[in-house]
Design brief:
The protein is built from twelve helices and ten strands. By secondary structure, the chain is an alpha/beta fold. Strand 5, helix 7 and strand 6 form a beta-alpha-beta unit.
Length: 326
């Protein structure tokens, strides 16, 4: 009798999993239930706002709700691990940024591998950075600023959003490329770093255009260069680092959608089409473009290749900055 009961329970359990199993085995039936989009940033922030706009558009295309879940903490590692260990059925997705590519160099024991444990779906945005100084500094362009730094090794300080933050590592790459030296001052976020620069406690910093734009437009800081391959439509008067002769110093923060590794390719392709359609929608792209956010799509293969490049780039930057992994 006991054996028969166990057999019945096992059979019922198997039957309960059949709809989901069939949805995975037959991607044409996907999606048959709501999707979860895991985000390692707080609600209301700039990344969260774009993620939710994309999620709403994708939900309409797939005819299923896309529920955004904010799982903050551990520099995004909690959200990353949640998705890396999720069932690869297309129902649990990760919305992340450049931090995903930086983490491998900052942690000795990362609970996931960004290149092995995820199936990239597609990029959603690229946000160039901008090099800024206080108005009190004499240099008027990047060339003059480099000369000013070279004449004063370690005399100037720069603010960052924290050790290992992209605002820290981008300056490390700039200093290495120009053969200059300065002192980094870490703050708990880029907003406090900006406040410090406005108050003269630090003399320069690099931040995303979308965050720095209000201060540049108000004339409270001096924008010397943007780090994208081309000038930003939001700051057309500001030249690129390439125009200053730094041909290899092109960098941006980015955002994108990823799924657990082994998610069926037909599901990945359908997700990619939905995400690409979302970022091409003028109703979404227009307001973000005005803020310096370049909405763009990619194929899964392009995103995979780009992610590999970014892991190498920021790994080199961490070593240049002399940061010891935790």
């Amino acid at each position: 009798m006991q054996t028969r009961r166990r057999t019945l329970v096992a059979a019922l359990g198997a039957l309960a999993g059949l709809p989901l199993a069939r949805a995975v085995a037959n991607p044409a039936a996907w999606p048959a239930q709501p999707l979860r989009l895991i985000l390692p940033y707080a609600a209301g922030g700039p990344t969260d706002v774009l993620a939710r706009a994309v999620a709403q558009h994708v939900a309409r295309q797939l005819d299923q709700p896309v529920i955004v879940e904010n799982k903050t903490g551990a520099s995004g590692n909690i959200a990353g691990e949640t998705v890396a260990r999720a069932r690869p059925d297309g129902y649990t997705l990760l919305y992340h940024s450049s931090g995903l590519a930086i983490s491998p160099a900052l942690y000795r024991q990362l609970p996931y591998d960004p290149l092995r444990d995820f199936a990239p779906v597609g990029l959603t945005a690229s946000i160039p950075l901008v090099l800024m100084t206080t108005n009190a500094l004499p240099p008027r362009d990047t060339g003059e600023f480099i000369a000013y730094l070279k004449a004063r090794p370690d005399a100037l300080s720069y603010g960052t959003g924290g050790v290992g933050n992209i605002t820290h590592l981008s300056v490390a790459l700039f200093l290495h490329a120009t053969g200059t030296r300065a002192v980094g001052i870490p703050y708990k976020g880029t907003n406090p770093a900006m406040v410090a620069m406005l108050g003269g406690q630090v003399q320069f910093m690099v931040d995303a255009i979308s965050s720095a734009l209000p201060y540049i437009r108000d004339g409270r800081v001096k924008a010397l260069a943007v780090t994208g391959a081309e000038r930003s439509p939001a700051l057309p008067q500001v030249p690129t680092l390439r125009e200053a002769g730094l041909q290899d110093l092109t960098m941006s923060t980015w955002q994108g959608v990823l799924a657990p590794a082994a998610t069926p390719q037909p599901v990945i392709r359908r997700l990619n089409q939905a995400v690409a359609a979302a970022v091409r929608d003028p109703a979404i792209a227009g307001p973000f473009t005005a803020q310096g956010v370049d909405l763009r799509s990619s194929s899964p293969a392009e995103f995979q290749a780009y992610l590999g490049q970014e892991v190498r780039r920021w790994g080199d930057a961490v070593r240049m900055a002399g940061i010891q992994p935790e």
